[in-house]
């Protein structure tokens, strides 16, 4: 049996945030009920596929999965356990947003076997939360966090966001300190991207109101400071935007970069099974060898560990040098890539311009 | 063909300002004389290049023979010789006119007389043609035929009272045009028995027949087997076939004799042997003197053309060779640019000619091109007495070796309504024009005459003219020799390295302005790279302008969404694709379009 990651998508939220272009939207109770029922049905429909796999991680993402009733989460996990073989030590995460979580829900999560909670905070500054269009205050987050600890969650992630409009470097540093002092096991620190189709795009798209956004120089400083500050609290950066205490790296997330097979269930969810990729509702696309090699490189480079030459050779029966010799050399010369005995990874300068480096690995 | 009575032949062309309906009238005449039924007609038979139809202009001269039964009961043979409609091809126009005995002047009933109307009429009168005016587009609501008739009489000085008032589009009154051709256009003259004397007014290359020469027989007779001599080029051949022009096809016949228009094939391999304007004579029994007016057409505008993909260099050469088979005025020679690799320095009659060739290379030969800024031919007088004709700025000698330089000038006539005279005068002033005079052709319209450097009108003069006159100004020019001028070579340095493909010659007085604009434009076009890139404009070792492309600080996608890597891949692919269209100069990557963007330094 091969390892498999499961992703379950819950496309509901209370209110769309100003930066969010995920598949999620406000909904009514009836819609949610119907969706959960059909999700369970879909899960069960993978009965045959499930036979070849054992599940190493589950991630319930959204939207705001914590919006669902306890009963509905239980329903979903019932379907999952009925269909899949799940490792006893599987990492099982659920995304929760402050303001939607209760003691009762947290207990239900625990009962379902959920052992990791990912809380969307974004900022410890209420004025920034407001600008982002979040529905909660920092105070409410603290309350949720405490509740989660009380309920026995020993593995908690907090999502943070830098580059928020009007945010200063000092603002960001304060948020980092505030949150790190709470000692969550994992911190995701993303920088804001103005995506098309969001309210932020209306305001900031095509270089409008540029003065309100931290400039590139500040934005990079924020990134450098993130690592410095979080390291001082005992976190290490294991992926471009992810920090963890040793042993708490998000396995599910790493699986995406290492090309572990994963099955996404729910509206628009992405899957990689055998040599095919698809988003739910779309026609699977077969990845040829070239595409697979490219992915191995540009996905693997997102992790700080990078890509192993030995693994590459084992998978593709060709040495990495024979495929990418010239790029490796050139990128190393430019100081963007570190090419070791076995591991190839980005340098700090390489992280800054990682898209440029990664694009070089397209054949 | 033998035995056709000269008095039943009419050789004529149609002249007009662009868009006044020349080609539409030609189509209607062809249709009404029954050469083609309207169902068979694809609009505008004579403009048979795809590009010509698209742009609504005639590039190559086209010719068609039509038989018309007139009201007097007699059958007449019309040879309609369509002329190119653009100033770039002025010489071809003049040769086409020389093949005619009369011209139909088409004037738009709303627009009236325009700059090219005048230029074309003068050209026709220079060739002693009888000009027969026709007022077109009388069906337009804004048509004012009476005013236009008056204008033709006042401005041009030809009688227009009985000019047919037609709509070539609907066919209204086109029958009057046909009758008037018979009445007003003189029959050809010339002695069939005299030594052969025929004017070449066009030629094209056909892969089966070789070169096909279009000619007007002025004197004598030519038929299969006649040994012929091109008097200017000295090329000799034996005639393989003679014939006349059907609609889009060649129809062989016995012989061509004085007064007729037709074609000759003689297994000639190169159109260069059959230059437009040359005289064909009988090699064994030559005429005493060639027809007057032959001149070799020389390119006026030069630019570098490079394949975007260096590996396509041989393809570009093949394509240019093929185009040249049909276009003797196109010149090219190999050149090498440090920035762009292997390519060709190409010479054109003008900017339109350049654009047409460029478009044909891209469309018909599927080539992706990088074109450098077009320039004119400068005469460089060196201190040692040598004179260089400079077509590539990179070849400019060291300033210490230069005594002085000369640049080509044009005489321009701009016709404009009075409200825009000020704006157009400003424009000409900015382009270093010297005012020569102005005449009102009617109360609200005037002709402005300027002496302008060719270099100043080859870029975007026409566009500027149109935009500053809200489309009302029309423009025509002719070459007018060389004058001494204070010219300098402006170099562009990117990351301290001179980029040869971006150098150009400019007048000293405008060098700073141009240099500044170039740097600004390049700053927009060159994407940020891993390091800071200075962009400088320099004259010799003196830097006159500078911009900086800041280093790329950040190019990182923070988040990947729930394992959906398709958008990440798309982003990377886009980046990679963008890189493919870049040229590496030193260690800077310059997008191909940057080389061309400098052609469009906005006027305002």
Automatic annotation (TrEMBL), chain B:
User: Which GO terms fall under biological process for this protein?
Assistant: positive regulation of translation
Gene Ontology MF: a single term: GTP binding
- Per the annotation, which location comes first and is thus the protein's main one? membrane
Q: What is its EC number?
A: 3.6.5.n1
Which top-rank group of organisms is this from?
Bacteria
Question: How the protein sits in the membrane?
Answer: Peripheral membrane protein
GO CC, alphabetical: plasma membrane
List, for all copies, the residue spans of the domain called Tr-type G.
7-189
Compartment(s) of residence: Cell membrane
InterPro entries in the record, alphabetically?
Answer: EF-4, EFG_III/V, EFG_V-like, EFTu-like_2, G_TR_CS, LepA_C_sf, LepA_CTD, LepA_IV
Recorded catalytic activity of this chain's protein: GTP + H2O = GDP + phosphate + H(+)
Q: What does this protein do?
A: Required for accurate and efficient protein synthesis under certain stress conditions. May act as a fidelity factor of the translation reaction, by catalyzing a one-codon backward translocation of tRNAs on improperly translocated ribosomes. Back-translocation proceeds from a post-translocation (POST) complex to a pre-translocation (PRE) complex, thus giving elongation factor G a second chance to translocate the tRNAs correctly. Binds to ribosomes in a GTP-dependent manner.
The family line of this record is: Belongs to the GTP-binding elongation factor family. LepA subfamily.
* HAMAP family membership: LepA
For this entry, the protein name equals Elongation factor 4
- Origin species, per record, is Dorea phocaeensis
């Amino acid at each position: 049996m091969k390892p498999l990651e499961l992703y379950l998508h819950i496309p509901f939220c209370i209110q769309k945030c100003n930066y969010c272009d995920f598949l999620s939207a406000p909904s009514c109770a009836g819609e949610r009920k119907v969706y959960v029922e059909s999700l369970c049905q879909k899960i069960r429909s993978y009965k045959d596929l499930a036979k070849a796999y054992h599940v190493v991680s589950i991630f319930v993402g959204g939207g705001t999965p914590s919006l669902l009733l306890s009963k509905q989460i239980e329903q979903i996990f019932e379907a999952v356990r009925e269909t899949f073989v799940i490792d006893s030590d599987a990492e099982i995460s659920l995304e929760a947003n402050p303001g939607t979580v209760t003691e009762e829900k947290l207990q239900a999560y625990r009962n379902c076997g959920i052992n990791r909670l990912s809380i969307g905070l974004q900022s410890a500054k209420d004025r920034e939360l407001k600008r982002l269009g979040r529905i909660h205050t920092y105070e409410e987050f603290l309350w949720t966090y405490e509740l989660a600890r009380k309920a026995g969650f020993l593995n908690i992630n907090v999502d943070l966001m830098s580059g928020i409009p009007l945010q200063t470097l000092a603002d960001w540093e304060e948020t980092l300190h505030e949150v790190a002092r709470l000692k969550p096991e994992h911190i995701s620190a993303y920088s804001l991207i103005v995506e098309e189709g969001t309210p932020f795009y209306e305001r900031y798209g095509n270089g409008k109101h540029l003065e309100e956004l931290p400039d590139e120089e500040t934005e990079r400083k924020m990134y450098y400071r993130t690592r410095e500050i979080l390291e001082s609290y005992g976190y290490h950066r294991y992926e471009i935007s992810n920090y963890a205490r040793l042993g708490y790296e998000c396995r599910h997330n790493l699986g995406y970069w290492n090309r572990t097979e994963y099955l996404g269930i729910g509206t628009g969810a992405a899957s990689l099974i055998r040599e095919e990729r698809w988003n739910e509702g779309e026609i699977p696309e077969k990845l040829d060898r070239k595409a697979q090699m490219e992915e191995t490189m540009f996905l693997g480079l997102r992790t700080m560990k990078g890509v192993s030459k030995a693994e590459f050779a084992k998978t593709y029966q060709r040495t990495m040098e024979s495929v990418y010799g010239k790029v490796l050399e050139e990128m190393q010369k430019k100081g963007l890539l570190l090419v070791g005995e076995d591991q190839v990874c980005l340098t700090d300068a390489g992280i800054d311009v990682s898209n440029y480096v990664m694009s070089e690995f397209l054949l | 063909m033998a035995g056709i009575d000269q008095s039943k032949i009419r050789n004529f062309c149609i002249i007009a300002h662009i868009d006044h309906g020349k080609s539409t009238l030609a189509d209607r005449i062809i249709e009404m004389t029954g050469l083609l039924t309207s169902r068979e007609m694809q609009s505008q038979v004579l403009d048979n290049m795809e590009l010509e139809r698209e742009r609504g202009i005639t590039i190559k001269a086209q010719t068609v023979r039509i038989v018309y039964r007139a009201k007097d009961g007699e059958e007449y043979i019309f040879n309609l010789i369509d002329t190119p409609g653009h100033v770039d091809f002025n010489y071809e126009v003049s040769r086409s006119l020389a093949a005619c005995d009369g011209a139909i002047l088409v004037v738009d009933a709303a627009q009236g007389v325009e700059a090219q109307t005048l230029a074309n009429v003068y050209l026709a009168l220079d060739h002693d043609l009888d000009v027969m005016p026709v007022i077109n587009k009388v069906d337009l609501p804004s048509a004012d035929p009476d005013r236009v008739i008056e204008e033709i009489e006042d401005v041009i000085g030809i009688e227009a009272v009985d000019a047919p008032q037609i709509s070539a589009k609907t066919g209204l009154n086109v029958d009057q045009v046909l009758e008037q051709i018979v009445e007003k256009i003189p029959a050809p003259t010339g002695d069939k028995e005299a030594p052969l004397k025929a004017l070449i007014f066009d030629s094209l290359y056909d892969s089966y027949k070789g070169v096909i020469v279009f000619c007007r027989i002025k004197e004598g007779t030519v038929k299969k087997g006649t040994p012929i001599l091109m008097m200017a080029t000295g090329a000799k051949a034996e005639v393989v076939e003679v014939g006349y022009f059907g609609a889009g096809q060649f129809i062989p016949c016995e012989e061509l004799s004085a007064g007729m228009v037709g074609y000759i094939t003689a297994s000639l391999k190169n159109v260069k042997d059959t230059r437009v304007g040359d005289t064909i004579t009988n090699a064994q029994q030559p005429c005493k003197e060639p027809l007057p007016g032959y001149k070799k057409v020389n390119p006026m505008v030069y630019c570098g053309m490079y394949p975007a993909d260096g590996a396509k260099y041989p393809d570009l050469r093949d394509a240019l060779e093929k185009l040249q088979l049909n276009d003797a005025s196109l010149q090219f020679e190999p050149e090498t640019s440090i920035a762009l690799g292997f390519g060709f320095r190409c010479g054109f009659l003008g900017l339109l000619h350049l654009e047409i060739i460029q478009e044909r290379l891209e469309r018909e030969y599927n080539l992706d091109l990088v074109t450098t800024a077009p320039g004119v031919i400068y005469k460089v007088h060196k201190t040692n007495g040598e004179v260089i004709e400079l077509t590539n700025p990179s070849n400019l000698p060291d300033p210490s070796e230069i005594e002085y330089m000369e640049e080509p000038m044009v005489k321009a006539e701009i016709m404009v309504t009075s409200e825009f005279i000020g704006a157009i005068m400003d424009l000409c002033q900015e382009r270093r024009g010297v005012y020569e005079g102005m005449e009102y052709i009617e109360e609200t319209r005037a002709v402005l005459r300027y002496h302008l450097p060719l270099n100043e009108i080859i870029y975007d003069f026409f566009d500027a003219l149109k935009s500053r006159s809200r489309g009302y100004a029309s423009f025509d020019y002719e070459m007018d020799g060389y004058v001494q001028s204070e010219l300098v070579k402006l170099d562009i340095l990117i990351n301290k390295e001179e980029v040869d493909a971006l150098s150009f010659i400019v007048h000293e007085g405008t060098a700073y302005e141009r240099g500044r604009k170039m740097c600004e434009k390049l700053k927009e076009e060159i994407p940020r790279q891993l390091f800071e890139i200075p962009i400088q404009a320099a004259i010799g070792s003196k830097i006159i302008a500078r911009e900086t492309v800041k280093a790329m600080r950040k190019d990182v996608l923070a988040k990947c969404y729930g394992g959906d890597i398709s958008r990440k891949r798309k982003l990377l692919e886009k980046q990679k694709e963008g890189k493919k269209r870049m040229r590496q100069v030193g260690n800077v990557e310059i997008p191909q379009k940057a080389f061309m963007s400098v052609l469009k330094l906005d006027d305002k």
